Amino acid sequence: PVIVDATFPLRRQRAAFRRLAELRGIPFCLIACEALAACLRERVAERARSGHDASEATVAVVDRQLREREPPAADELAQAVVVDDAGELPEELARRVREKLGWAGD
Questions:
Q1: d(CA 43, CA 14)
Q2: Total-model pTM
Q3: Which of 24, 80, 89, 91 has the most CB atoms around its CB within 10 Å?
Q4: Which DSSP string corresponds to 18-62?
Q5: What is the mean pLDDT of residues 82-95?
Q6: 3-class DSSP state for residue 80?
Q7: Beta-bridge partner residues of 31
């Protein structure tokens, strides 16, 4: 499998990877992460305070991404696993992704 770890707030950005997967004949699953704006701002601010974050994100970047964000449409959600900020266990997320990809028995 191939995992692309990035923020894709625009549909066209997500569509490019979806098309690439189709061209390569590999399964595609979007992991759509949802969180309250206040939670996102606090997480970024905390990481900045810690001084140990490789991310270039700032609260201003989060605010811009929230303004420009195009939420996944119905056709995207058909190939998506939605994760919220409730703290789902990694094992449960992995199970749901495998199920979405048709790898439930793997």
A1: 24
A2: 0.81
A3: 80
A4: HHHHHHHT----EEEE---HHHHHHHHHHHHHHT-------HHHH
A5: 87
A6: strand
A7: 81
